[in-house]
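Q: Give me the 3D complex with magnesium ion.
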Amino acid sequence: MKGCKRLYSARAIAARVKKLGKAISADYAGKDPLFVCVLKGACIFFSDLVRAVSLPVQLDFVQAASYGGGTVSSGEVRIVKDVECSVAGRHVLLVEDIVDTGRTLARLQELFKARGARSVQICALLDKPSRRAAGGVRAAYCGFTVEDRFVVGYGLDLDEKYRNLPYIGELPPQGEEAWQ
Ligand code: IMP
Ligand code: MG
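A: Here is the predicted complex, encoded as structure tokens.
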């Protein structure tokens, strides 16, 4: 893709996802876990990750959004689509595309714990620790740590674009064409 700096190739992502799947399989053996995909950004990562896990797992989906318009979020997180399963007594693994401020995952973790989940852990494809807000969350499993830059592809979007790029890239400066 012209102008877009490739950070992680499809091949590098696949290798990392395989390793995450192995670690998760070892940790969750015998626990009958519930894997929850945080839509929409994690959808591609989730599909690959669950197939790298060698355990029977249950899948569900949740979608959250931050209140407020424009580019600056108010920090309040609203559930747009809730899970269908009961999480009470379950070992829940939240699968997210990127932990930025950490507010979305902090809210989801708090919500599922309040509903009686036995454990609520996080698996994030990417982590941007420099952006973490106070009281931030910690991902038990993380694909790659990135600096404070906006990335797209493999599920991550900019205004709903670029999700289907097979790799993760950094967008070119404004005005330059990213697709090629
Ligand atoms: P948080 O609640 O601030 O951690 O927000 C996390 C959400 O912000 C992610 O699920 C993404 O949808 C979005 N986000 C944060 N950083 C990026 C980025 O670099 N690229 C694409 N989306 C991002
Ligand atoms: Mg997004």
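A quick observation: Residues 41, 96-104, 150-152, 156-157 surround inosinic acid (ligand 1) (CB under 6 Å).
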